[in-house]
Amino acid sequence: MTHLGYRLALTLDYPSGKYTGTVEVSLPGPVDTLRLNAAGIRPLGASAAGSPVPLLEEAATETWTLGPFPGSASTVSVRFQGEVNVSGLGGFYRSRHGEGILFTTHLAPTNARSLFPCLDDPKERATVELEITTPAGPEVIFNTPLLQAREEGDRVTRRFAPTPPWPPTSSTSGWGFDRYTEQEGKVTVTCLTPPGRGTEGRWAVENARKVLRGYADYYGQPYPLEKLDLVSVQDFGMGAMENWGAITFREEYLLANASTPARLKQRIAEVVAHEIAHQWFGNLVTMARWEDIWLNESFATFVSYRLVDRLYPAWDLLGEFLSVETGGAL
């Protein structure tokens, strides 16, 4: 079953990290029941066509079964509450951010269900429309551009443009980002950093612009979104994550200054190219099962080495690819 979309509304408290939410799920046609993935969040109720519907929570299988629905139902609305993870680096979690804190997400492979109830499977592509209410201080970054920010006393509600159809993905909220921004055609490329470090995003943004051009030519398909954010996350369990339109990075693989060693700047260029490769191969086109992640990663590795080698031939990255990547695969 493929669902038409999620309309997700969250109300988030700082600094506790507790939140309540409602997700309205579009149904693809007449169905009696709907089974969503959910883990670590608490159900508060469900309704369809203006009437309450049963909700069965099955912790062992991390599923909520909703229904039966009235015959006229085209959507089902689910209310829930959750809390930011403060003891790990997965799901919706807390990171350091300069002198403050950052609430961010790492939802792959199956952590979207810990943020909101959804079909947490790569083959289940759907649009996401996010509306999030926070205290007035934090800034919110999502995969798509901000459409509206509405102040209500000491709180702000932000509404973002709908995503293209994709598996559930990520957002970031924090206090005080600095920015380094350049334009690449119709795409706004921005590096978001902790306070006072905006200029350290220049090298990553310059390389992001180059690889956007290179991949558009290689794939024969332009980058499909209006923006590309490169987001620095101080506490991050991986090198980077290719969230469509809002890639998250460990700081050392994104930020550079005058004292950054040449080898590390080379590594930043490689990681930026790898993650942007996934904007096409991995996001625009997604494997049906996590068991096939090797194809997703191996192709992104190959094309990123190939492109960066063309941009910086003196680095001899294809030689490194043969000795490091190919050797390890044999």
TrEMBL record:
It holds the Pfam family Peptidase_M1_N. GO terms for cellular component: cytoplasm; extracellular space; membrane. Residues 203-322 form the Peptidase M1 membrane alanine aminopeptidase domain. Belongs to the peptidase M1 family. It is an enzyme of class 3 (hydrolase). Its EC number is 3.-.-.-. Keywords: Aminopeptidase, Hydrolase, Metal-binding, Metalloprotease, Protease, Zinc. Its cofactor is Zn(2+). GO terms for biological process: peptide catabolic process; proteolysis. Coiled coil: none annotated. The keyword Isomerase does not apply. InterPro entries: Aminopeptidase_N-like_N (IPR045357), Aminopeptidase_N-like_N_sf (IPR042097), M1_APN-typ (IPR034016), Peptidase_M1 (IPR001930), Peptidase_M1_aminopeptidases (IPR050344), Peptidase_M1_dom (IPR014782), Peptidase_M4/M1_CTD_sf (IPR027268). One of its GO terms (molecular function) is peptide binding. Residues 71-167 form the Aminopeptidase N-like N-terminal domain. This is Peptidase M1 membrane alanine aminopeptidase. The keyword Metal-binding applies.
